[in-house]
Amino acid sequence: MFNPTIYRTRRARVARRLENGIVVLGGHRRQPLNLPMNLSPARQSSHILYLTGLEETDSAMLLRLDNGRLELFGPAEDPEDEIWHGPRPTFQETAERLGADAAYPLSELETRIEHHRDAGPLHTLPSADPGWPARMASVGVTIHSFGEMPRNQPSPLADAMIALRSIHGQEEIDEMRTAAAVTARAFRAAMAATRSGGHEAQLRALIEGIYRSAGMRPSFDPIVTIRGEVLHCEANPNRLEAGDLLLVDTGAESLEGYAADVTRTWPVRGRFDMHQRAIYEIVLEAEIQCIDRVRAGTEYLDIHIHAARIIAQGLKDMGILRGMVDDIVDNDAHALFFPHGVGHFVGLDVHDIEDLGDRAGYAPGRRRSSRFGLAALRLNRKLEPGMAVTIEPGVYFIPGLIRNATFRERYREWVDFDRAETWIGFGGIRIEDDVLVTAGEPDVLTRAIPKRVEDIEDIIGEAPEALGALADARP
Ligand SMILES: [Mn+2]
To answer: Which of 119, 136, 172, 347 stands 20 to 30 A from 300 (CA)?
Structure first.
């Protein structure tokens, strides 16, 4: 946890933005998996983490805006708990340590809400707890299911949380640097341990092991795959062969819950072949130039378009695209090979504040475009100092897009589909860093992770022994 003063300051800022009432937020609830006592991992709601530091799930918070009183709600004391889990601080003690004014069993939430009725309206947000809408309905408040709050529904609390959380304080930036440092260790180890005959699963285990050994966990399930063209390929069934390109998209989550999110793509052989290098250099050029544009006052949409233009130019030079670069991008033909957005907010969530949909990522009055080349863009705001974003251009040869009859018809003027077809099987390349917007130069939080061709070729396979027992672990 941070110093309780930090949380108190954050709550005071929320109170200044909302006139009166109480803020009531529901913590994440662990879900049973295959049997009732085998539960999904615990991860607190980022809004509660931000305002209180309370990590305990199956909990709730109540903040009274007129006087700043904070009440925390958690599991009732269970005398058996110590037998199974050892002596732990009681919820009461945890609440005190966090600077709360009182702690109650979660079952008393509704009673306490009634107690504070005189304070004014109840402000809440959707929660990952599936029972939250019913719980709020029982106190007369309508709230949508998680991830389903309409963009146009007024919510001063949502707007306040977005305003505060999208601009990171020094303590948050320090956390992101710590997550980045551990992520860098994981990438360097995985690169050094890469060898043909190795296995995707071994490298994934090595990466996750490094997070765990730092007391951390992944900020999302790591992608470690030779099928880079499958954008979110979470399976690891493949053995590595010399000619493969390996795409790794992963990040650690710091102890206070801040995410890193990094992608690198490297050749298993340790040297890029001609084709791999050609595509790699296009993506790298796009990434470096886009990072340089992460500056206060820049529209993030323009960075996305800039990535599209560099990729379009590169693929045109290779004879895969044809025509004027402006026309290619205006018509979204580049999106056959770069079908996602150039990045997103990063912070307490790996896609920060996306539990509120596009409300955080899109400036008021802006809507996601339905255009093929823009529809997957998660962020469309003017950048301000303190924002943290990813920059992650990529080029992929996706059979489902290249062979799609509708696209073949629509883009025949701009795409040499015969040539594109010969690239099927190549996979995909993405390069991603986390970048802090400052008053001056972009601050690349994840800069320690190799990405220049020479640096990557230097480190691949340098230390296969780093796998240790993992090298022999597969049956
Ligand atoms: Mn990302």
So the answer is: 172
